[in-house]
Amino acid sequence: MQNTKGLSLEIRLSAYLDGEVTDAEHRELEELVARDEEARRLFEQLQAGNAFGNKAFEDFLHDPVPLSLVRRIKQGTPTNPKAERVTTADPIRHRTRLWPRTLAASVVLLLVGGSTGYILGMVNSQSEQNQQVAAARSWLDDIAEYHRVYSRQETHLVEVPASQGDAAIINWLASSVGVNFNRPDLAAQGLTFEGGRLLVAAGKPVAQLMYRNAEGDVFAICFLKSESKGEQGKLAESMRDDLAMVSWQKSGASYVVIGPSADAKLRDLAETVATEI
Amino acid sequence: MRQATESNEFRRDLVSLLPKLRRFAMTLTRNAADADDLVQEACERAITRSHLWNGEGRLESWIYAMTRNLWIDEIRKRKVRTGGGTVDVADQDELTIEPSGEKAVYASQLQKMILSMPEGLASVFVLVNVEGHSYRETATILNIPIGTVMSRLSTARIRLAAMISETTERRA
Predict the structure, then answer these.
(1) Which of B60, B137, B153 to mutate to test the interface with A (most CBs of A within 10 A)?
(2) d(CA B132, CA A18)
(3) Residue A75's pLDDT band (boundaries 50, 70, 90)?
(4) Domains observed in chain B
(5) What is the nearest CA distance from A66 to chain B, expressed in angstroms?
(6) Is A81:A239 a contact under the CB 8 Å cutoff?
């Protein structure tokens, strides 16, 4: 509590308004406002300034925060973003066993000469490189691209709308993907269920449940059947430009929640989904 | 692993604070472009020093103080402050930094009007009135005496009250 005696009346009344004066001063100023018209007018002026300022500064919170800033904070410069990405749901890598081919090539070399063997070696090497490039791209990359396209669809956001009922959507997606699930109710998080889609990512069927918030931002839950490896249930965050993703694995399936990277509570949302789905 | 988790949680808290931190930065810089640069710098510094955050009190108070210090350094670098820093900004008639209409692309007319208050008034008002910091906390964040907090706050309220009639006149 402050001792405001000796200060100007507007400073004293301002502190009185904030409850920052001693009990004795509080009583004194309360009586002053009650009996003195000038003091009352000044007090009301301070109150009006308060109300006006509160409303105006509240509006500042609606300004968009630069996405690049959110990205930089979330990923941070010292962290390698690739290290945080879930890679366990990568497409199955069809590793080529090269030695039998090399042996065969050697036989061919013996039979048809060095030039033919050289050509075969080149083809094998090229094929291996192509497979490595394909494997480096995870299903999350595909999901991010799908999300960019579908989240902009105003009238055709989903394949099967929520109006067809949870049972129909769940039966359809569960049988298509091979993963049993509950449709998470995210109304408490301000999200309305819009419906579902069946996608293909990394060559596998993926179920997608779409939600929209009051601002029109689209959030999706995607999952596919996968091998159980790595730490189960551990959430991993990653970014794809303007999209943020939180992914995890559980009971033979891989899951991801995807939404705008500006949404600071995506991880909380993913935790809820991981519990309910 | 634990360090990485704590770092992620700290970053998440920081992202949640961004709208408020940006608002506070706007009260210091009084234009959106400078505010965004300042917020970015403050966040980077906060992340590199996150191990110093002891978890006591409000995280925003710690980051606000850091933001304010960075801005003071920036002002010193630019050498734009008049009055040598010895004159209470509430007593200054002219702004030391003009809020640029072009740069304040995000600011509405009302925001611009509010940000045109003399330097120091808006920060105190936001901290005390809008965000509920005590006079002492505000004085610590801004590194000013409590008496200055009190005088700036009352001045801000009177100026804001005067804007009510200004905005009414403009609408009419």
Answers:
(1) B153
(2) 9
(3) low
(4) 2-171 (1.20.140.160)
(5) 8
(6) yes
User: Would you state the structure tokens that stand for residue A58, as one six-digit string?
Assistant: 């509240």
Architecture of domain A67-82+138-276: 2-Layer Sandwich (3.30)
pTM value is 0.55
Residues of A in contact with B158 (CB under 8 A): 10, 45-46, 49
The domain spans of chain A are 9-60, 67-82+138-276, 98-134
Complete DSSP assignment for A47-68: HHHHHHHHHHHHHHTTSPPPHH
* Cβ atoms of residues A250 and A233 within 8 Å: yes
Q: Is the pLDDT of residue A27 over 50?
A: yes
Distance, in Å, from the CA atom of B171 to the CA atom of B165, rounded to the nearest integer, reads: 10
First-to-last CA distance in chain B? 61
Q: Report residue A78 as tokens.
A: 């010292």
pLDDT of A273 > 90? The answer is yes
Token code pair at residue B74 = 């920036």
Token digits of residue B172: 């009419």
CA distances from A72 to A69, A261, B14, B78, B79 (A): 5, 11, 11, 26, 30
| β-pair type (A204-213, A236-240) | unpaired
pLDDT digits (tens, 9 = 90+) for A168-186: 999 999 999 999 999 999 9
d(CA A147, CA A257): 11
Residue B168 is which amino acid?
Answer: T
The separation between CA B162 and the C-alpha centre of its own chain, rounded to angstroms, equals 22
- List, for residues B44-55, the tens digit of each pLDDT value: 888 888 877 777
